[in-house]
């Protein structure tokens, strides 16, 4: 089967929901973390953040979607920020060492289910302890220029594939954006079997 690429970010509630749904369908991915955005997207996103109507809908929508899976008061979690490149650098290190999927699920759950600040080193340590991954490697990756450079390099892949948000799934050069496109993606893959 052709590779399915998934662009994600731990910051996004929609990425959490989309990745969760996709993994429940037993889809396998090449994950690409989105931390640094192409400059042409920055202006677009800054303008969108100023749209009060859109922002209020975003919180309303997330409350609804998360309530369906038993998570309440998600708007309090959404506003929590972290140093996202550092968190994703830890994930990259885990991915390189065969712990990427389990690290991802634990990090998403820590943020969205347990309302934890996954940018804190003690939370990263806790995630590593749960999955059996070296906390020393994960913490070291947070301050490693090589991982940061790798994260920045993904902006080129975003441009090439016209990725503008997360989660975006890419299958046979066709983009599927949003947590609500998993069924369509799944059907497309099933057609090819």
Could you explain the architecture of this structure?
The protein has one domain: 3-Layer(aba) Sandwich (Glutaredoxin). Helices cover 60% and strands 9% of the residues. It is globular. The longest helix is centred in the first third of the chain and has 17 residues, at 52-68. A 4-stranded mixed β-sheet has the order 2-1-3-4, with helices on both faces. The termini are close together. Helix 5 packs antiparallel against helix 6 (100-112), helix 5 crosses helix 8 (135-141) and helix 7 crosses helix 8. The model has no long low-confidence stretch (mean pLDDT 91). The chain has 193 residues and is of the alpha+beta class.
Task: Summarize this structure as a short list of keywords or feature phrases.
193 residues, alpha+beta, Glutaredoxin, 4 strands, 60% helix
Based on CA inertia axes, which overall geometry fits? globular
Order of helices and strands: EHEHHHHHHHHEEH
Through-space gap between termini? 8 Å
Total tally of structural domains: 1
Q: How many strands, which pairing sense, and closed or not: the largest β-sheet?
A: 4 strands, mixed
Low-confidence stretches: none
Kindly state the number of beta strands. Answer: 4
Number of helices: 10
CATH architecture: 3-Layer(aba) Sandwich
Mean pLDDT: 91
CATH class: Alpha Beta
For the biggest β-sheet, the strand order reads 2-1-3-4
Relative helix content:
55-70%
């Amino acid at each position: 089967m052709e590779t399915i690429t998934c662009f994600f970010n731990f910051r996004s509630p929609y990425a959490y929901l989309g990745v969760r749904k996709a993994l429940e369908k037993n889809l396998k991915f090449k994950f690409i973390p989105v931390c640094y955005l192409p400059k042409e997207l920055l202006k677009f996103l800054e303008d969108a953040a100023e749209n009060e109507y859109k922002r209020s809908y975003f919180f309303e929508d997330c409350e609804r979607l998360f309530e369906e899976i038993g998570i309440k008061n998600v708007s309090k979690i959404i506003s929590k920020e972290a140093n996202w490149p550092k968190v994703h650098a830890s994930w990259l290190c885990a991915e390189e060492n065969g712990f990427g999927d389990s690290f991802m699920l634990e990090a998403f759950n820590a943020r969205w289910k347990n309302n934890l600040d996954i940018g804190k080193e003690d939370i990263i340590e806790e995630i590593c302890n749960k999955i059996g991954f070296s906390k020393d490697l994960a913490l070291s990756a947070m301050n490693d220029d090589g991982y940061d450079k790798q994260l920045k390099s993904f902006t080129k892949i975003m441009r090439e594939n016209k990725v503008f948000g997360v989660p975006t799934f890419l299958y046979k050069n066709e983009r599927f954006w949003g947590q609500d496109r998993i069924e369509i993606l799944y059907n497309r893959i099933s057609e090819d079997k």
